[in-house]
C-alpha cells in the first residue's frame, strides 16, 4: 500500500509539472496561432486554441479534483483539439491525436492507453476519409475508403509503437520503483535500528592515501563520545584515541586493517570532554564487487564498568585494601621474578621483612583508625624510598616486605647496599607520625636475607620470606629498632623454638608441668600470702625457665590452655592449705589472651564449682597491658569476677603504657611494684622517688602493695619504713613446691 501511494504521488507530481509546461507553452504558441488564424479569417481555429488554453488553465488551477478526473480532462482536451484540427486543417493535425494514447499510457496506464489508441485511430480514419479524401496512391486502385484505412493503420502502427513503448517503460519503472521503495524502506528500517542500538556504530569510507573518513555514526556514539554527528563526519576513524590508549593495541589494529582483516580489541577511547572510557571494538572491512576495500564498519561496546570491576577484583586479589601495596599473593610472584632475574643477570637481590615495633600497643590503645593511619604513613614512607624496580608489600598486620633488585654482584657489596637501604628505612619509619593532632613514634625491626646464596640450592619464595622473617625476629629480640641479616644459625634457633613449642604442648598434656609458690611476707617477715609460679622440669633433670617457655606459649596460643591449667592448680593449692589449717590467699597470673576469651568468666565459675575452692582466697594477677584494649569491657568482666569473691592485683605496676585513670575505675585489691623499680632502691634517687610515689598513691586509694624482687635488707628496710604492707623476693624465700611451703608455714606457725 505504501508503494502504491508513493507511485500515485509520483504520477501526480509529474502530471502537475506537465500541466504547467503545457499551459506555459500554450500561452507562447496558442495565442500567436489564434491571432494568425483570425487575421486569415480562420475563426474556428482561433476559438479552438483559446478554448483549449483556458480549459488547461482551469485543470491546472482546480486541484481539488481527483487525479483521474484531471487527467481525463487533459486527455480530452488533447483529443478534441486534435479532432477539430483534423477536420479544419487536414492530416497534418494527426500529431495531436498521436499524443493522446501516449499521454494516457504515461498518466493512466496501459489499458486506458489502448482504448485511446483505438479511438484515435478510428478518428483518423473516419474524419480523414469524410472531410479530406485521401489522394490516390501510386499503384493502388482509387478507393477512397481503402486509402483512408491504410493511412489510419500506419498512424495506429506508429502511435502503438510509441504508446506501448511508454507503457512498457512505465511498467518497468513501476517495478523498479517498487523495488527501490522496498529497498528504501529496508534502508530506513536498518538506519533506524542502527541509530537506536545500544552499541556504538561507526562507518568509515576508505580514502586511498588519506586514511578512513567517518560517514556515519549512530545515536549511541553521540551519547557516549559527546560528539554530535556533524562534528565527526569526514574526520578520521582514529579520532577518539588519546594519550593512554595502548600503543600495542593500536599497532595490532593497524596491522589487521592493512591486511584487510576483521579485528577485535579492547581499546581506551576519549570523549569530547576528555573522559577516558573502555570499548570492546570490532572492525569489519567491506569490499565492492571488484574486491576493493571501500569501507570499514566499527561496532563498539562500552565496557568501562566491566573493566573497573575487573580492576577492582584484581586489586582485591593482589593488593592490600588499606595501603594499596601488593599483598602476599603478588609478593610471592614478585619474589619468583626476582629470583629469575638474578639467575639471568648473575646479580644479587635482597628480601627485607619489616615489623613495626609497639604497633599493637598503639593500635589497641588508640583504636584501629589510628593504627590504620599509622600503617598508611609507613607504607608511604617505604614507597618513597624505593626505586621503580623494587617492590614494597604489606603481608598482614604491621608486617611489610621490601624486595631490592639489582644490587651489586658480589656478596660483600650486596650486603653493604642492602644495609644502606635498611638504615634508610629504619630512619624513615622511626620519625614521629602526626595523626589526629597526636604524635606517635613507631620504630621498626628489619630482617634481611640475600639471594642467591653461593653453594645453596635454589630456594622457594617461601624459604626466602621465612629467612627474612627469622632475621627480623632476631632484630626484635635484640632490643627492637634494629637490623639483622639472616644466618643459618638462626634457622637452627627457629627449629629449636618450634621443638620447644611442641614439647611444651606434650608436657602440658602429660602433666609434667608444676606449680611452685613464692611466699609473700608482711613487714615482720611473716608469710601472709603467696604467688603461684609455673615450672617445667625436663626428664633429664634440667628445667626450662619461665622466661623461655612463657613467650613461646603466648605466641603459639598455648597460653590459654596453660592459664586454665594454672587456675585449677591454684584452686587445688588453696584447698590443700586450707585443709592443713594454713589458709592464706594465693595469687595466680592470668594472661591478657586468656582473660579476653569470651567465656573466661564462665570458665572461672565452672572451676570454682568443680573444685569447691573459696574464691576469697584467690587473687588474679593481670598486667597493665590488659587494660589498653576495650577497657570498658575489661572492667565489666572484672566486676563479674569480683562478684564471685575473687580479687585482682595489677602485676608489674608502672611498666605499662595505659592511663592511670583506670586505677579508680577498676575493682582492684592490690598493686605489685615491679622488681625493676626495687633493684636500685634505696641507693638511686629516681627509683627511690618512684617507689615512694607508688606507695603514697596506693595508700590514698586504699590498695594493698606488694613489692617484688626484694633481695637485700636495705631494700626491705626502706619499703617497711614507707609503709609497704607486703614484700616478696629471694631475701625471704625462693619459689618452692607446695609441700615445702606447707612445711615452712608449719614451722613458722609453731614458733613462739
TrEMBL record:
Keyword entries, A-Z: Membrane, Transmembrane, Transmembrane helix
Protein name as catalogued: EAL domain-containing protein
InterPro entries (UniProt xref): Biofilm_reg_signaling (IPR052155), EAL_dom (IPR001633), EAL_sf (IPR035919), GGDEF_dom (IPR000160), MASE11 (IPR048437), Nucleotide_cyclase (IPR029787), PAC (IPR001610), PAS (IPR000014)
Domain PAC: start-end pairs: 261-315
Molecular-function annotations in GO: catalytic activity
SUPFAM superfamilies: EAL domain-like, Nucleotide cyclase, PYP-like sensor domain (PAS domain)
Domain PAS: 186-260
PROSITE patterns named in the record: EAL, GGDEF, PAC, PAS
Ranges annotated as spanning the membrane: 14-35, 41-59, 71-89, 95-127, 148-170
Domain EAL: 497-749
Protein origin, superkingdom: Bacteria
Domain GGDEF: 347-488
Amino acid at each position: 500500500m505504501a508503494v502504491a501511494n508513493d507511485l500515485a504521488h509520483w504520477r501526480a507530481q509529474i502530471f502537475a509539472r506537465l500541466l504547467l509546461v503545457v499551459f506555459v507553452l500554450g500561452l507562447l504558441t496558442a495565442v500567436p496561432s489564434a491571432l494568425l488564424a483570425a487575421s486569415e479569417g480562420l475563426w474556428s481555429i482561433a476559438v479552438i486554441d483559446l478554448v483549449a488554453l483556458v480549459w488547461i488553465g482551469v485543470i491546472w488551477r482546480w486541484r481539488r479534483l481527483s487525479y483521474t478526473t484531471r487527467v481525463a480532462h487533459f486527455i480530452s482536451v488533447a483529443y478534441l483539439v486534435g479532432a477539430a484540427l483534423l477536420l479544419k486543417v487536414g492530416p497534418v493535425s494527426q500529431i495531436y491525436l498521436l499524443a493522446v494514447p501516449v499521454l494516457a499510457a504515461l498518466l493512466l496506464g496501459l489499458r486506458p492507453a489502448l482504448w485511446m489508441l483505438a479511438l484515435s485511430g478510428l478518428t483518423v480514419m473516419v474524419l480523414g476519409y469524410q472531410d479530406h479524401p485521401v489522394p490516390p496512391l501510386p499503384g493502388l486502385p482509387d478507393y477512397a475508403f481503402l486509402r483512408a484505412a491504410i493511412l489510419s493503420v500506419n498512424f495506429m502502427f506508429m502511435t502503438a509503437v510509441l504508446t506501448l513503448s511508454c507503457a512498457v517503460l512505465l511498467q518497468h519503472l513501476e517495478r523498479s520503483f517498487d523495488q527501490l521503495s522496498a529497498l528504501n524502506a529496508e534502508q530506513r528500517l536498518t538506519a533506524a535500528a542502527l541509530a537506536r542500538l545500544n552499541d556504538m556504530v561507526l562507518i568509515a569510507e576508505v580514502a586511498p592515501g588519506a586514511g578512513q573518513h567517518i560517514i556515519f555514526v549512530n545515536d549511541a556514539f553521540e551519547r557516549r563520545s559527546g560528539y554530535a554527528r556533524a562534528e565527526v563526519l569526514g574526520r578520521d576513524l582514529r579520532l577518539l584515541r588519546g594519550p593512554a590508549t595502548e600503543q600495542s593495541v593500536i599497532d595490532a589494529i593497524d596491522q589487521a586493517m592493512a591486511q584487510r582483516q576483521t579485528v577485535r580489541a579492547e581499546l581506551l577511547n576519549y570523549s569530547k570532554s576528555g573522559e577516558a572510557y573502555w570499548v570492546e571494538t570490532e572492525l569489519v572491512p567491506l569490499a565492492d564487487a571488484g574486491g576493493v576495500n571501500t569501507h570499514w564498519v566499527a561496532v563498539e561496546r562500552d565496557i568501562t564498568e566491566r573493566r573497573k570491576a575487573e580492576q577492582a577484583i584484581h586489586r582485591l586479589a593482589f593488593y592490600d585494601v588499606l595501603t594499596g601495596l601488593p599483598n602476599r599473593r603478588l609478593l610471592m610472584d614478585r619474589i619468583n621474578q626476582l629470583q629469575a632475574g638474578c639467575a639471568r643477570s648473575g646479580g644479587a637481590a635482597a628480601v627485607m621483612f619489616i615489623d613495626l615495633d609497639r604497633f599493637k600497643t598503639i593500635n589497641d590503645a588508640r583504636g584501629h583508625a589510628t593504627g590504620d593511619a599509622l600503617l598508611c604513613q609507613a607504607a608511604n614512607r617505604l614507597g618513597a624510598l624505593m626505586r621503580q624496580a623494587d617492590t614494597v608489600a604489606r603481608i598482614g598486620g604491621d608486617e611489610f616486605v621490601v624486595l631490592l633488585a639489582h644490587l651489586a654482584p658480589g656478596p660483600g657489596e650486596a650486603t653493604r647496599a642492602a644495609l644502606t637501604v635498611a638504615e634508610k628505612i629504619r630512619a624513615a619509619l622511626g620519625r614521629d607520625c602526626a595523626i589526629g593532632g597526636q604524635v606517635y613514634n613507631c620504630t621498626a625491626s628489619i630482617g634481611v636475607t640475600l639471594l642467591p646464596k653461593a653453594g645453596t640450592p635454589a630456594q622457594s619464595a617461601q624459604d626466602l620470606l621465612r629467612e627474612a622473617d627469622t632475621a627480623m625476629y632476631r632484630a626484635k629480640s635484640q632490643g627492637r629498632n634494629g637490623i639483622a641479616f639472616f644466618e643459618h644459625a638462626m634457622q637452627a634457633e627457629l627449629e629449636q623454638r618450634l621443638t620447644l613449642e611442641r614439647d611444651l604442648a606434650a608436657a602440658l598434656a602429660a602433666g609434667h608441668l608444676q606449680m611452685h609458690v613464692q611466699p609473700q611476707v608482711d613487714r615482720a617477715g611473716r608469710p601472709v600470702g603467696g604467688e603461684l609460679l609455673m615450672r617445667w622440669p625436663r626428664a633429664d633433670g634440667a628445667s626450662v625457665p619461665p622466661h623461655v617457655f612463657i613467650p613461646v606459649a603466648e605466641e603459639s596460643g598455648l597460653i590459654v590452655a596453660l592459664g586454665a591449667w594454672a587456675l585449677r592448680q591454684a584452686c587445688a593449692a588453696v584447698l590443700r592449705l586450707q585443709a592443713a589449717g594454713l589458709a592464706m590467699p594465693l595469687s595466680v597470673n592470668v594472661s591478657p589472651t586468656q582473660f579476653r576469651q569470651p567465656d573466661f568468666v564462665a570458665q572461672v565459675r565452672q572451676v570454682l564449682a568443680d573444685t569447691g575452692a573459696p574464691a576469697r582466697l584467690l587473687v588474679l594477677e593481670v598486667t597493665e597491658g590488659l587494660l589498653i584494649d576495650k577497657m570498658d569491657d575489661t572492667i565489666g568482666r572484672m566486676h563479674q569476677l569480683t562478684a564471685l569473691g575473687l580479687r585482682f592485683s595489677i602485676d608489674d605496676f608502672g611498666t605499662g603504657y595505659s592511663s592511670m585513670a583506670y586505677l579508680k575505675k577498676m575493682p582492684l585489691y592490690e598493686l605489685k611494684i615491679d622488681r625493676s623499680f626495687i633493684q636500685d632502691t634505696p641507693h638511686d634517687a629516681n627509683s627511690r622517688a618512684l617507689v615512694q610515689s607508688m606507695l603514697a598513691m596506693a595508700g590514698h586509694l586504699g590498695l594493698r602493695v606488694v613489692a617484688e624482687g626484694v633481695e637485700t635488707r636495705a631494700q626491705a628496710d626502706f619499703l617497711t619504713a614507707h609503709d609497704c604492707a607486703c614484700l616478696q623476693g629471694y631475701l625471704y624465700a625462693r619459689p618452692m613446691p607446695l609441700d615445702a611451703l606447707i612445711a615452712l608455714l608449719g614451722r613458722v606457725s609453731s614458733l613462739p
